[in-house]
UniProtKB/TrEMBL annotation:
Family designation: Belongs to the eIF-2-alpha family.
Organism: Stephanodiscus triporus
Coiled coil: none
PANTHER family on file: EUKARYOTIC TRANSLATION INITIATION FACTOR 2 SUBUNIT 1
Domain S1 motif residue range list: 70-141
Keyword Protein biosynthesis attached: yes
GO molecular function: translation initiation factor activity
Name of the protein in its database record: S1 motif domain-containing protein
Chain segments carrying region Disordered: 1-38
Amino acid sequence: MAESNDAAAAVPSASSSSSSSSSDAADAAAADASADDNAAAPDGSFRLYLAEDKRNLDCRFYSARYPEIESLVMVNVRTIADMGAYVSLLEYNNIEGLILLSELSRRRIRSINKLIRVGRNEVAMVLRVDKDKGYIDLSKRRVSPEDVAACEDRFNKAKAVHGVLRHLAERRKLYLEELYERIAWPLYKKYGHAFDAFKIALAEESSASSSSSSSSSSEEEDPFASLDVPSDVIDELKLYIRRRLAPQPIKIRADVEVSCFTYEGIDAIRDALFAGIAVGGGGGEGQSSSSSSSSSAIKIRLIAPPIYVLSTMTLEKEAGIALLQRAIDVISQKIGEKGGKMDVKMAPKAVSLKEETELQAMMERLEMENQEVAGDEPEED
């Protein structure tokens, strides 16, 4: 009976050994496959990532694994604790950092939720970095408004570059970090920011297509010419750059009040407004602003007398603002010569979709108020 029990006990032991050996074999096969995937390609091509977990798409924005002390970083607030706020450094592959409670504000903190909220992006300054333990202490109170604007601009550019490379890695099943090592980080080093190199490539390509420039000059200007990257990858990368980074038209708007109580009155206002339209190449009297084929045509719409809206679409914000300012100066001069006056209610600026929606709603409301309703007719005797 004892021998039979020993034999029975030996069966699961053998089964366990067989299962363990098969598991080890599977792990070894997976390791070999991973090693094959990670092996550098001898012909200069990129390694492929065949798994479905998308770990190949994890990568920081910059070549340095940790930020420098006193540098500015964009963080996302994860949790708020007694010690402070735990955040993720968005530019460094979401590594964790801590904004200490004493570094949230220069003033006395009455409510921490008014200073910082979970899920919101914030600009912080790096105080300490422990690379061995992975600790990063940050400060929010030492960041000035100018620092916030500069950091947001740099982050938005880096995010655009990251989006282009991530899309390329996802489509081709490549390692995102390898794309950064062979494309983005060399461009950061040479041009200061990879986004600037992408914009140069976009401008060079558009100028080459519109003019018959020599191939040698375009090769010198092409930021990707010095990179050791297959041509098919570069072609697809340029395609994504055209889609993601092509300049989008910006709407510039200004609100003015034009009035004239002299004999010429309405005619003087009309002539002055047409003179402003002509600044943008929109023609003069007898032509509507919408008839212009110019990309910087100026349109003028009546909100309610004597308030008018000047607007233009442009690819360059500063150029559009300058154009509307010239139109305002011309209108002011013309209406002044006729004894009228012009006041600027809102200086030229780039407007968002929300502001345009509010303007349209206000114009519709004013139009409804001006419509005739029952009882407006004069009473008959």
